[in-house]
Amino acid sequence: MTVPGLLILLGASINWAFGSQLSKRLQIPAGTTGFAAEMLAGGIICLALSPLLSYWLHQPLIHAPDWRAWLALLYLTTFGSMIGYSCYMYLFQTVEQSLATSYAYVNPLVAVLLGVLFAGEKLTGLGMLAMAITLCAVAWIVISARKKT
């Protein structure tokens, strides 16, 4: 990974945290309408910035994407964006912040398990140890959040 790529990744994490905090203080329509408006605004901003940052197709597609690519896009749009983001924002507004953000630790574990189950990936002993430590940390967060309420 390049230094600009790392800086962009760091900036994205900082902006996500800032946006999450800001969303608690702004007058956003209740329910999924507000979440949809946030996602649409983000999409429009990304679409507007993409040509400026050279993330634009410089040549026409030679081959149309196959059905698996369309299925992956449909899955990510439905579960990763619409449902996942709406659930995150609901949790962020209704439960302890540390509990709502614990998804960031659980999602990679789910991705690893899905890779093992469906893509034939191998899970090493070190990987299992890392997963166990992560699950213990998330359990600690959940228990700590319950003790505060």
Question: Which properties best describe this structure?
Answer:
149 residues; mainly alpha; 6 helices; 0% strand; globular
Task: Describe it.
With about 150 residues, this protein is mostly helical. The protein has a domain of about 55 residues. It is built from six helices and no strands. Helix 2 crosses helix 3. The longest helix is centred in the middle third of the chain and has 28 residues. It is globular and about 55 Å long. The termini are far apart.
Brief description of this entry?
The chain has helices spanning 3-25, 32-49, 67-94, 97-100, 103-119, 125-148. The protein has 149 residues and is mostly helical.
Shape: globular
Sheet with the most strands?
A: none
**Rg from Cα:** 19 Å
Average pLDDT taken over every residue: 81
> From the helix content, strand content and strand pairing, which structural class follows?
mainly alpha
Query: Would you list the SSEs in sequence order as H and E?
Result: HHHHHH
Number of helices: 6
Assembly status = single chain
**Which regions have little confidence, pLDDT < 50, spanning 5+ residues?**
none
What fraction, in percent, of the residue positions are helical? over 70%
- End-to-end distance, in Å? 42 Å
Fraction of residues in β-strands? under 5%
Write down how many β-strands occur, each being a DSSP E stretch of 2 or more residues: 0
Which SSEs are present, and which pair or pack?
Blueprint: H1 3-25, H2 32-49, H3 67-94, H4 97-100, H5 103-119, H6 125-148
